[in-house]
Amino acid sequence: EVQLVESGGGLVKPGGSLRLSCAASGFTFSNHNMNWVRQAPGKGLEWVSSISTYSTYIYYADSVKGRFTISRDNAKHSLTLQMNSLRVEDTAVYYCARAQWSYAFDIWGQGTMVTVSS
Amino acid sequence: EFVLTQSPGTLSLSPGERATLSCRATQSVNSNYLVWYQQKPGQAPRLLIYGASSRATGIPDRFSGSGSGTDFTLTISRLEAEDFALYYCQQYGGSGWTFGQGTKVEIK
Description:
The complex is a heterodimer of chains A (118) and B (108).
Chain A (H helix, E strand, L loop, with lengths): L2 E5 L2 E3 L5 E8 L8 E6 L5 E7 L6 E3 L7 E6 L4 E6 L8 E8 L5 E4 L3 E5 L2
Parallel strand pairs in A: 2-11
Antiparallel strand pairs in A: 1-3, 3-8, 4-5, 4-9, 5-6, 7-8, 9-10, 9-11
Chain B lengths: L3 E4 L2 E4 L5 E11 L4 E6 L6 E5 L3 E2 L7 E14 L9 E7 L4 E3 L3 E5 L1
Parallel strand pairs in B: 2-10
Antiparallel strand pairs in B: 1-3, 3-7, 4-5, 4-8, 5-6, 8-9, 8-10
């Protein structure tokens, strides 16, 4: 079964750090660009970051640039989002999502909740 | 700044009716990179349409996408109970993605 499973969410104070992970299974991980998308409580979807198959191309939303770092380990079929200098407005469910050949996000994880609060 | 504006914000319809959702961009969009998703409460989004008009695997043919340039449409020909949900459009701009703010299709 094709699956993405996120982990690492939790409660953190403003200015703190958190590391999210996404474990992929059921497909050839190294063949797909990967992404992080977040959704604040009661709000819409916001693209956060993307990484190409061999990490050649990496992109970030302006809202997280300089604070978040995306990375991947193709040997371990895993995607990571290192989040530093967290702000209250980073509070959201964070989804990892696979990009198909068309760049559309065809497989999504169940999401992991990140709460930034003092 | 690239912005996608979806309208209406909420669509109140009855089962069996036709739903027409709009997604308008502030700049011309490459149709190959215009996507629609469906999201139900407590669930991750599900890919519906990619390339503006191609249905994803397993998506019923009552869902169709159309449009070009700055104006795109998602049509649900006959609403079924499971179609009442949130719908988002998305576009790829070369160095990142942008989502619309969503349209909620609710039962009238």
